[in-house]
Amino acid sequence: MHHHYPKFMTVLSVVLLFFLLGYPGGLISSNDTYVYENSNPVAEKKSAQERPINNLRDFNNALVEIASATTPAVVTVRTEQTVRMQSRTPQDFFREFFGDPRGNGGNEGQQREYRQQGMGSGVIVSEDGYILTNNHVVASADTIYVGLENGDELTAEIVGTDPDSDIAVLRVDAQNLPFMTFGNSDELKTGEMVLAVGSPLNPGLAHSVSQGIVSSTGRSLGLMTFENFIQTDAAINRGNSGGPLVNMDGNIIGINTAIASQSGGFQGIGFAIPSNIASSIMESIIEHGSVIRGFIGISFEPVSENIARAFGLERTRGILVNDIVPDSPAEEAGMQSGDVIIEVNGETIREPREFQFEIANMKPGDEVSLTIIRNGEEESVDITLTQRPQDDEMAADDGGSVEDITGFAVRNLSDEITEQLRIPPNVEGVVVESIDQNSQAYRNNLRQGDVIIAVNQNPVISVSEFNSIVSAGASRDVILLQVIRQNQRFFVAFEPRT
User: Fold this and answer.
1) Annotated catalytic residue: which of 136, 210, 279, 450?
2) pLDDT band of 254, cuts 50, 70, 90
3) Using CA atoms, how far apart are residues 232 and 253, in angstroms rounded to an integer?
4) Using a CB cutoff of 8 Å and minimum separation of 24, what contacts does 28-32 make?
5) Nearest CA to 361 among 236, 239, 227?
6) Which end of the chain is more exposed for a tag (fewer CB within 10 A), N or C?
7) What average pLDDT does range 272-283 have in this prediction?
């Protein structure tokens, strides 16, 4: 399925928070279950209603109590990864990233190996050792250590991750740990006061707290497939990723994830994953080992003014169905290309992201009622969702992979690829990693290193989006790509393989 992200403050670059330094505490290497002991008294947790504020001192004391009750459950997440590098010249870029299209292999220079460290934050959510953090904090890590407030450090294992939402669940073998409970992020309102807690930058600044308000909710940045961020001006700096955003009841209301910044430092715009989303993903990972999401089986695009006029709509609202996945719930329910979806379960849909998010947050077997406009008339369609396929399962009805269908493979853009290919920083898309020279796509001018920004007139910003749109449109006679090469934009049209 496709969703479209609005452009967000083009003068700002969204910076994911990655980490560089180690943690000073003592590593606990016993085979026995670790039992947490802390002689420091922990402030009693109270709800906001239990904290009457009669003067500024009462207000100050309330913040101190919330911070004191919260910080013991916030941990430092330290990662180590073995990195192997070869000496290379600038001409070796394509061979290193994409492989040599002539089949000559990569650079044969001397290979070096070193240990790369990273650091982020996490929050303990159960006394027996479950910890929430960001996927980007632990992605590609060989070893993960969790540093507690009392200075002890434990080895952690990954229970599961969800790159589509940037959530990861860790576990340490421990008992009696201090932990935090989840608040209801659906009740969160703009203007509410919050605290951001984490262990940023280096050991000397571990377990820091900043205060601010909720600036907005329902934000999208185009970083992950499923987004519905809380925006806050509580300072979120390097190292805070994975730590909790805390409400005035002392509960987790979000998981800190990203900042928007020109300099790489915090400039008043931070983003957190809502607690209801994080807790639901965590429960699914613990129960199933992965996130089980609902699937409806359509590709779609926003309703522009031209589309609204072409379909005879009174105003620009809802989303336009482009194509139907064969044998999907949408096909079984009689959905058609050209339907305009304006409501989901009675709630108005204004843009594709809202629809994408609503369906993904449902479970297989859930019933969804869609209000659609077809041939100028409103109709109701009831659909029973199935399980959303994984990216590598997104395929045509013949069971072939997306690469089989197109004749080429793509990967997400990275900063290094963007720099090496001299792609403007505001360009979003996927880059062609390899291509079969016997494919129709190659014969029609698609090349390794080309950046695909749209498929079948649907913008794409990730491999998962690309796979979803291609799979949904695999029954079409022609696949249409919009491509950028050396700052030149052009179209490539080719027939999918069957």
Assistant:
1) 136
2) very high
3) 12
4) 28/152, 28/153, 28/154, 28/155, 29/155
5) 227
6) C
7) 92
List strand residue ranges (DSSP E) for 163-219, in order: 167-171, 174-175, 193-198, 208-219
User: Is 3 considered catalytic here?
Assistant: no
Among residues 166, 233, 391, 450, which one is catalytic? 166
DSSP-derived letter for residue 182 is B
**Locus of tokens 């998962």:** 464
Distant-in-sequence, close-in-space partners of 230: CB < 8 Å, separation ≥ 6: 185, 188, 214, 216, 217, 219, 245, 253, 254, 271, 272, 273, 274
Catalytic residue among 241, 279, 299, 464: 241
Q: Rounded to whole angstroms, how far apart are CA atoms 133 and 257?
A: 9
Distance of CA 342 to the CA centre of its chain: 26
For 438, phi and psi rounded to 5 degrees?
-95, 0
Cα 296 from Cα 386, distance rounded (Å): 7
100 is catalytic: no
Instruction: For residue 440, give the amino acid letter.
Output: Q
Q: Assess whether 464 carries a catalytic annotation.
A: no
Task: Please write the tens of the pLDDT for every residue from 346-392.
Answer: 988 877 777 887 888 888 999 999 999 998 889 999 999 998 776 44
Q: Is the pTM of this model over 0.90?
A: no
